[in-house]
Design a protein that fits this description.
Blueprint: E1 9-12, E2 17-23, E3 29-31, E4 41-42, E5 44-47, E6 52-54, H1 56-60, E7 69-71, H2 93-112, E8 117-122, H3 128-140, E9 144-150, H4 151-162, E10 176-183, E11 188-196, E12 199-208, H5 213-232, H6 240-259, E13 262-269, E14 272-279, H7 280-304, E15 314-318, H8 325-335, H9 348-364, E16 372-374, E17 381-386, E18 393-399, E19 407-414, E20 423-429, E21 439-446, E22 458-465, E23 471-477, E24 483-486, H10 496-507
Parallel strand pairs: 1-8, 8-9, 10-15, 12-16
Antiparallel strand pairs: 1-2, 2-3, 2-4, 5-6, 5-7, 10-11, 11-12, 13-14, 17-18, 17-20, 19-22, 20-21, 22-23, 23-24
Helix pairs in contact: 2-3, 4-9, 5-6, 5-7
The structure holds adenosine-5'-diphosphate and magnesium ion.
């Protein structure tokens, strides 16, 4: 590979840990260690006087400077600002994510030289708003985000590579159905995929963006604190630094419990101390409902794919939390199969993203791709319509969930009065019939309608939902051949100017020609 040619780089921007990988000269994915020498970079930030420290050191600071630490910003993507004030400021979650990406970029560039183009992964269950926010974070961090792909898909691609399905002299093997169970630090995702003939096709996907290893940690924190309260009438959670320290202790104990039958957790607060013994059994007891939630979602996803366990060839474990023995026990009992641990649960997602980046680069260069990815949408997409009977607003679904992508759907609106100048289209994402229970994607105002349009003129609004789960809106006024592409106005999303300002502030780079 010459110096000027593009490197294929993939980033797994995780809730708790992030990973960056690239394709080496032989096209094999390799994880790049960060400046501290670790393959996993904690997605944690410490706001010091004038600088932001990302990674291991920020995690350490949780025990002493918790008020200056930001973590799990991924869970807050889509909100206007991160819940915590840091150094006197409230930052948009995508800016916090961008700091993490910026560290990965800089550390990686030290090793493989400059690059801009990347593929970033997101949970399959991420909605459109969070996908857009992730793409924006990449832009702020100085990347040119070629694509965003789903984490389980990326993991399946890495698995396919490792199994040799992707090599040019293989026919891709027979068709296999894989269930990817991804339990990370902050999110849970389950996807049923069909792999074969160099094609990766998602059949159904579901998940929970508020469920992950952090919740298991929290149960231990609460357990220890209840013991503390019982003995001393004091709650260590009242002090952020004590809580930060205790969380680290509990996370560590959780890892111990994956290898041993028991672990002990120490907690001291206001001159009192306890040491709590936790057995694997007790840990399972206080977290069983969390595990049950993942089991429930897994069953549902299988059902949504129209399959039964006998139709599944492999259960693939992804995400650090699948190291908990209870996870594989549960899956084995449910599926009758021993779950597959042949890919690294931490690195698979970034590796798959790098492979996808390589595919896109070769496609740009006019070569035929080594494999194909077919996705489905994880949430239904609709518009707010007025119910003819009740006159109440309701969610009129245009693209039901688990529809193969890309897809185009249309809906015809009618102008209400003569000479109407604009039409407002409100776009929502979710399964509920009530728009209030759905996520508000944004609005699209169709302006500049031709003058003197008679009332009841049909206006065709088309949604084009891309492979990566991003939406574009096209509008056509009947009787004209004008096809308008419409921008969606989003409530909590940053404007191009704001993105450029953040980009300069965080990555020191000027605006790019190819803005998101
Ligand atoms: P994410 O992608 O959401 O950031 P990861 O896939 O990197 O998450 O997984 C991180 C989670 O895995 C953390 O909650 C961590 O505590 C957990 N984890 C890592 N190793 C172990 C282990 N040996 N036992 C139990 N949990 C683990
Ligand atoms: Mg992950």
């Amino acid at each position: 590979m010459t110096k000027t040619s593009q490197r294929a780089v993939g980033v797994d921007l995780g809730t708790t840990f992030s990973v960056i990988a690239y394709l080496d000269d032989l096209g094999r994915p390799q994880t790049l260690a960060n400046a501290e020498g670790d393959k996993l970079t904690p997605s944690v930030l410490l706001f010091e006087d004038t600088s932001v420290v990302v990674g291991k050191e920020a995690v350490k600071a949780m025990a002493t400077e918790m008020v200056h630490v930001a973590e799990c910003a991924k869970r807050e993507l889509g909100l206007r600002v991160y819940h915590k004030v840091l150094g006197g400021h409230q930052y948009p979650p995508e800016a916090l994510q961008a700091w993490v990406l910026n560290k990965l970029r800089r550390d990686a560039q030290q090793q493989i030289g400059p690059f801009e183009k990347v593929v970033i992964t997101v949970p399959a269950y991420f909605d459109e708003v969070r996908r857009k926010a992730t793409q924006d974070a990449g832009y702020i961090a100085g990347f040119d985000v070629m694509d965003i792909i789903n984490e389980p898909t990326a993991a399946a691609v890495a698995f396919g590579f490792q199994q040799g399905f992707l090599s040019p002299d293989s026919d891709g093997g027979e068709r296999r159905r894989i269930l990817v169970y991804d339990l990370g630090g902050g999110t849970f995702d389950v996807t049923v995929m069909e792999v074969g003939g160099h094609e990766f096709r998602a059949l159904a996907t579901d998940g929970d963006v508020q469920l992950g290893g952090r919740d298991w940690d929290q149960r231990l924190v609460d357990y220890v604190c209840e013991e503390f309260i019982r003995q001393f009438g004091l709650d260590p959670r009242e002090d952020p630094n004590t809580q930060g320290r205790l969380w680290r202790e509990c996370e560590d104990a959780k890892r111990t419990l994956s290898a041993r039958q028991r672990a002990s957790i120490a907690c001291d607060y206001q001159g009192h101390a306890v040491r709590v013994e936790v057995t694997r059994e007790l840990f399972l007891d206080i977290t069983r409902d969390l595990l049950d939630r993942t089991a429930f979602t897994t069953r549902q996803t299988l059902q949504a794919a129209g399959l039964e366990w006998k139709d599944i060839d492999r259960v693939l474990l992804v995400g650090g939390s699948t190291r908990m023995p209870a996870v594989s026990d549960m899956l084995q009992e449910m599926s009758g199969m021993v779950p597959d641990r042949s890919i690294s649960p931490d690195e698979a997602v970034a590796s798959g993203a790098a492979l996808h980046a390589g595919l896109l680069l070769s496609r740009f260069a006019g070569q035929s791709p080594a494999f194909n990815i077919r996705n489905v949408n994880s949430h239904s997409l609709g518009v707010v319509a007025t119910d003819a009977k009740t006159r109440r607003p309701r969610n009129a679904i245009l693209i039901p969930r688990n529809t193969p992508l890309p897809v185009t759907a249309k809906r015809v609106f009618k102008t209400q009065k003569h000479g109407q100048k604009s039409i407002l289209v409100q776009i929502v994402e979710g399964e509920s019939a009530s728009p209030d229970d759905c996520s508000q994607l944004g609005k699209c105002t169709v302006r500049d309608l031709p003058p003197d349009l008679p009332a009841q003129t049909p206006i065709e609004v088309r949604f084009h939902y891309k492979e990566n789960g991003r939406l574009t809106v096209m509008v056509n006024v009947q009787g004209t051949d004008k096809e308008l592409r419409h921008e969606i106005t989003r409530e909590n999303s940053l404007s191009q100017d704001q993105l450029d300002t953040w980009r300069h502030y965080i990555s020191g780079l000027p605006p790019a020609a190819s803005a998101p």
